[in-house]
Amino acid sequence: MIKYFIKEQLQVFQMGWIEYILVAAIAYLVVGLIMRVSPFSYGKIGGTILWGIMVIIVSYIDYYCKTILSFIFNNWISILSILGSFGLFSWISKLIYDKFFSTKAKTLRKIFSDDGLRKLLKEMKKDLIRDEYNREFYLMEKGWHFNFGGERTVYYYEDHDNLKNKIKYLENNGLIYDVTEGNVKKYRMTEIFIKKLKK
């Protein structure tokens, strides 16, 4: 067992003289980068020991890197298949998690099952069917006069109980955001909210 181990370790150092020079040079540079000084700043003996240790480390890295690269080269189809399967599994897992188990998915299910929001969400869905590219809406009272300069989606306070707080609830959950420019409240829907409304 020990004999086999020693034999295996000696294989690490079975390299050509050019490779020995490169390993020694890399080891010297690595020591310099780590210590920020030449190995021989610690004296001839200390520097030689330090450099020798780094040569051994670099030799092992060089040997095992070649072994790993050789293995990858000879088994690249199998490795790619394993990585592809793992990637596909990760993608499917993330998709399922995002759709059913994430905080956002739970929040959406809670909002769309809320009886207090059902009438408002139904009206929003109807307005999206009428104009699928519209993303903005206003909050107004029916007695107000406001020139929009064209047709706009408006939800009236009189038509929905506690409309202000319902809209604030949707905003706090990241489904809409306030884009008010004047005196009339104006909101823009997110694409996630629109996608859920259209279902």
Give a brief outline of the structure.
The chain has 199 residues and is of the alpha+beta class. Helix content is 64%, strand content 8%. It folds into two domains: 2-74; 114-198, Arc Repressor Mutant, subunit A, CATH 1.10.10.
Blueprint of the fold:
Blueprint: H1 2-11, H2 17-35, H3 44-74, H4 76-101, H5 103-112, H6 118-130, E1 136-140, E2 154-156, H7 163-172, E3 176-178, E4 185-189, H8 191-198
Parallel strand pairs: 1-2
Antiparallel strand pairs: 1-4, 3-4
Helix pairs in contact: 2-3, 4-5
How does this structure look, described?
With 199 residues, the protein is α+β, with helices and mostly antiparallel strands. The protein has 2 domains: 2-74; 114-198, Arc Repressor Mutant, subunit A (Orthogonal Bundle). Helices cover 64% and strands 8% of the residues. The chain contains 8 helices and 4 strands; from the N terminus they run ααααααββαββα. It has helices at 2-11, 17-35, 44-74, 76-101, 103-112, 118-130, 163-172, 191-198; strands spanning 136-140, 154-156, 176-178, 185-189. The chain has a 4-stranded mixed β-sheet with strand order 2-1-4-3. A hairpin with a 6-residue loop joins strand 3 and strand 4. Helix 2 crosses helix 3 (44-74) and helix 4 packs parallel to helix 5. The model has no long low-confidence stretch (mean pLDDT 76).
How are the strands of the largest sheet arranged? Answer: 2-1-4-3
Q: Strand pairing plus helix content: what structural class?
A: alpha+beta
- Output mean pLDDT: 76
At the first level of CATH, the class of the largest domain is Mainly Alpha
Query: H/E order of the elements?
Result: HHHHHHEEHEEH
Principal-axes geometry comes out as elongated
Q: Unreliable stretches, pLDDT < 50, 5 or more residues?
A: none
Q: Give the strand tally.
A: 4
